[in-house]
From TrEMBL, chain A:
One of its GO terms (cellular component) is plasma membrane. It is a peripheral membrane protein. Residues 2-219 form the ABC transporter domain. Its main location: membrane. NCBIfam families: FtsE (TIGR02673). Homodimer. Forms a membrane-associated complex with FtsX. Keywords: ATP-binding, Cell cycle, Cell division, Cell membrane, Membrane, Nucleotide-binding. It is found in: Cell membrane. Signal peptide: none annotated. This is Cell division ATP-binding protein FtsE. It comes from Micromonospora sediminicola.
Length: 220, 291
């Protein structure tokens, strides 16, 4: 498929075709502006391709109506470089907020939020505010929020971009653990260390084209 | 829980930006007051038109030196005229009595005028007050007639003024409504900006559009409803003040506006206030949040 942004001189993604199986762990790598992040946006239905199709969870979402988007997004978890936590809410409240705004009751939140916070290794820190947590811990909260609804797919846009190498590896372990539960993980990064250590499928993009697609690849 | 969440968000939203909220509510109140006022005036003008035009008469004043025969001829002609519903002859004595009554406050004037100085006249009620012109054309040249006076001409002027006032109030209501609209749009933008992080997260995790928009739209609707209540209070205030002041003297002339009529305009004001705010907020969000 092809995606060209308005006013752009060349397509952000040019005739790219990728298929990711359920349960896979995939890295998209490449220099800034190569079109990696556009992949995430296409998967989230934040943008639509000019040509071609986007199929997520077996459903063609290319021409999905925007009012269906919210429900579609509930099957996808998302983690970003800048965490995107609500600063005036505790770790627990941040995760519970994601549940409550999609109509889950407080009782459900009381049951599953501590569980998922325990899973990401934040047991005992539920009632801290983001500014009382380290960067790695904040990203764990973000992962917990993305995962609390048990999505089929977890999208991670440079999740280690703001973290030091050791903390990055911890976050990667966490994503790996989530992947082992059967969740497909799609991660965009330019952190070569991480890619080399994980030895997972690597898709390299340059100027909107796929230049490499390698199982158990390295940053190269 | 969701309802509670939405409602608490509405209150927080209104309070967060309280100066803007107050400005929005006041503008809305003035606009709705004008709207309600012009609505009432419109009703009143309609009522008064029915009442006055029904009783409107054409007066044919005879020359003071009119001859008996001319008068009798005229009366016969008027009685037979299909346009005419009713004819009353007013002779000099009756005219003088009316004159005395009308100017009872000014005895000097009454004393200065003698009965035979006043003209005899025919008071004619028309089947259709609009057909005055035909009557005028038919009789203007008849013998012994001095002038033909159509009261509806005067009424037209009075109602012209009232309609003007009403249109003015309506125009002012529209201008104020435009100002209120911009304030609503601005308030919603500020509210959306201050909650941009929450909105981003809600969009990300798949909160439904109505759930994201509801607090903002309701915030505007609540402001609109408060505005309409204030507008109603203003109408009540105006009636209370008017009833106790010089306006009371006009009581006989202008049919009074009853309390029930004032309260009946409230649903109109509340509906307009609420609906306009809701639509404005919603449209603003479409552009601003792109949800």
């Amino acid at each position: 498929m092809t995606k060209t942004y308005p006013k752009a001189s060349r397509p952000s993604l040019d005739n790219v075709s990728v298929s990711i199986e359920k349960g896979e762990f995939v890295f998209f790598i490449g220099p800034s502006g190569s079109g990696k992040s556009t992949i995430i946006k296409l998967l989230l239905h934040e943008v639509t391709p000019n040509k071609g199709r986007v199929v997520v969870n077996g459903k063609d979402v290319t021409s999905m109506r925007s009012w269906k988007r919210p429900h579609f997004r509930r099957s996808i978890g998302c983690v970003f470089q800048d965490f995107r936590l609500l600063p005036n809410r505790t770790a627990y409240e941040n995760v519970a907020f994601a549940l409550e705004v999609i109509g889950k009751t407080k009782a459900v939140a009381r049951r599953v939020v501590p569980e998922v916070l325990e899973l990401v290794g934040l047991g005992g820190k539920e009632h801290r505010y983001p500014h009382e947590l380290s960067g790695g811990e904040q990203q764990r909260v973000a992962v917990a929020r993305a995962f609390v609804n048990r999505p089929l797919i977890l999208l991670a846009d440079e999740p280690t971009g703001n973290l030091d190498p050791d903390t990055s590896i911890e976050i990667m372990r966490l994503l790996d653990r989530i992947n082992r539960t059967g969740t497909t993980v799609v991660m965009v990064t330019h952190d070569s260390n991480i890619v080399n250590q994980m030895r997972r499928r690597v898709i390299e993009i340059e100027s909107g084209r796929i230049v490499r697609d390698q199982a158990r690849g390295v940053y190269g | 829980m969701r309802m509670k969440y939405v409602l608490s968000e509405v209150l927080v939203g209104l309070w967060r930006n309280v100066t803007m909220t107050v400005a929005m509510i006041i503008t809305m109140a003035v606009s709705l007051f004008m709207l309600g006022g012009s609505g009432l005036l419109y009703q009143k003008v309609g009522d008064m038109k029915d009442l006055y035009y029904e009783n409107v008469q054409v007066s044919i004043f005879l020359k003071t030196d009119v001859q008996e025969q001319q008068r009798v001829d005229l009366q016969t002609k008027l009685d037979a005229d299909p346009l005419v519903k009713d004819v009353t002859y007013v002779d000099k004595d009756q005219a003088y009595k009316r004159f005395q009554q009308m100017y009872a406050d000014a005895p000097d004037l009454v004393n200065a005028v003698k009965a035979d100085q006043l003209p005899e006249s025919f008071r004619i009620t028309l089947n259709d007050p609009q057909q005055y012109k035909q009557i005028y054309d038919q009789y203007k040249t008849a013998e012994g007639i001095d002038t033909i006076v159509d009261q509806s001409k005067l009424l037209d002027k009075v109602f012209g003024v009232l309609t003007g006032v009403q249109n003015g109030a309506l125009a002012l209501a529209v201008v104020m409504a435009a100002a209120a609209l911009l304030l609503v749009a601005n308030t919603i933008q500020v509210a959306a900006y201050s909650k941009r992080r929450e909105v981003a997260v809600m969009k990300l995790v798949g909160a439904s559009n109505w759930f994201i928009q509801a607090p903002f739209v309701l915030e505007a609707v609540v402001a609109g409803l408060i505005g309409s209540i204030l507008g109603l209070l203003a109408l009540i205030g105006v009636k209370t003040v008017a009833a106790g002041s010089s306006m009371a003297a006009l009581e006989g002339l202008i049919t009074p506006i009853s309390w029930s009529e004032i309260f009946l305009t409230f649903p109109l004001m509340a509906a307009v206030g609420g609906l306009v705010s809701a639509v404005t907020a919603w449209v603003t969000l479409r552009f601003y949040l792109r949800v």
